[in-house]
Amino acid sequence: MRQKFGNVGAAGVVILAIALGGCTAGQWSDNPSASSSAPVNEQAASVDLPRSKRGNPPFYEVYGVRYSVMQSSAGYREKGVASWYGKKFHGRDTSSGERYNMYAMTAAHKTLPLPTNVRVTNLETGKSIIVRVNDRGPFVKNRIIDLSYSAAHALDVVANGTAMVEVVALNGSNNNPSTAQSASKTRSYANNANDMYLQVGAFGDLGNAQKLADQLTRNGIANVQVRESNGESPTLYRVRVGPVSSVGEYDRLAQQVERLQVAKTHLVVESDG
User: Fold this and answer.
1) Residue 55: what are its φ and ψ, rounded to 5°?
2) CA distance 50 to 55
3) Pairwise CA distance, residues 95 & 146, whole Å
4) 65-68/266-271 β-pairing
5) Fewer CB atoms < 10 Å away: N or C end of the chain?
6) Is residue 189 part of a domain?
7) Chain-centre distance of CA 262, in angstroms?
8) Choice between 65 and 167, residue whose per-residue pLDDT is larger
């Protein structure tokens, strides 16, 4: 179920142009020694991590379901099913922009800020590991975390493909300098390194893009822009509205555009960096 749409991670399918995978359990007999990219102990893992420039939009949508990215991982603790992903995605970009390394101690999560260090405990065996969440997923019902191959192997998940686990965040103020406000609430997107836009269309012809932009403007929609792609072949001209300051404003704009019979819109988050 893992595909790549725009800037999605190794783990993910996302209906946005930036950050974000469905879970796939797989098996193969290879068993190299794991190379860890996560801290080896909880003291090291508890150090606050800078929020990555990619993979942390205020929300994103997959298969018609909206996920709100948590502003802070402080206090996060959840029990559920873990799965894993491996060879098929080795070397692909994750949602945070890192390359997925199936031999590193990493994981994918739907809503934790990227990156976040977590302790994952196999509830059947009592075995625990520390992994760094750097990707989005899993998008299969009842699964809460997708482990890298080495992480799954260390936690005895590979053989069965899934396991009941507890996931506990080890660093918590890492991800928003302002507040640990509930991710379910409508909020301003306070990360100044990024801007949110409603993308309305993408065209190979500048004239068609400008025609749509003019239609939106005539119907009272402000801040319509036509952006030319950089370095893409063929060149694309993207029609965007924004930047917008909150999820609520985004939703209102999307509804306004939909009334003009322009239904295929999605969120884009741009980084200044």
Assistant:
1) 90, 5
2) 13
3) 13
4) unpaired
5) C
6) no
7) 26
8) 167
Going by C-alpha positions, the residue among 83, 79, 99 that lies closest to residue 91 is 99
Gyration radius of the chain over CA positions: 20
What is the value of pTM for the model shown? Answer: 0.64
Range of the domain at 261: 194-271
Residues 111, 58: Cα–Cα separation, whole Å = 10
Question: Domain of 207: which CATH number?
Answer: 3.30.70.1070
Amino acid (one-letter) located at 173: S
Q: Is residue 239 part of a domain?
A: yes
Q: Tokens in use for 21?
A: 């995978």
d(CA 171, CA 48): 6
On whether the CB atoms of residues 81 and 23 are closer than 8 A, the answer is no
- pLDDT tens sequence across 193-252: 357 788 999 999 999 999 999 999 999 999 999 999 887 789 999 999 998 877 678 888
- The amino acid occupying position 53 is K
- The residues, ordered by sequence, that sit 6+ positions from 29 with a Cβ below 8 Å of its Cβ are none
Whether 19 is in a domain gets the answer no
Strand 194-203 and strand 237-244: the pairing is: antiparallel
CA distances from 245 to 181, 183, 193, 227, 240 (A): 16, 15, 13, 19, 14
User: Rounded to whole angstroms, how far apart are CA atoms 91 and 98?
Assistant: 9
Say if CB 103 and CB 34 are below 8 A apart: yes
Residue 254 token pair: 């999307």
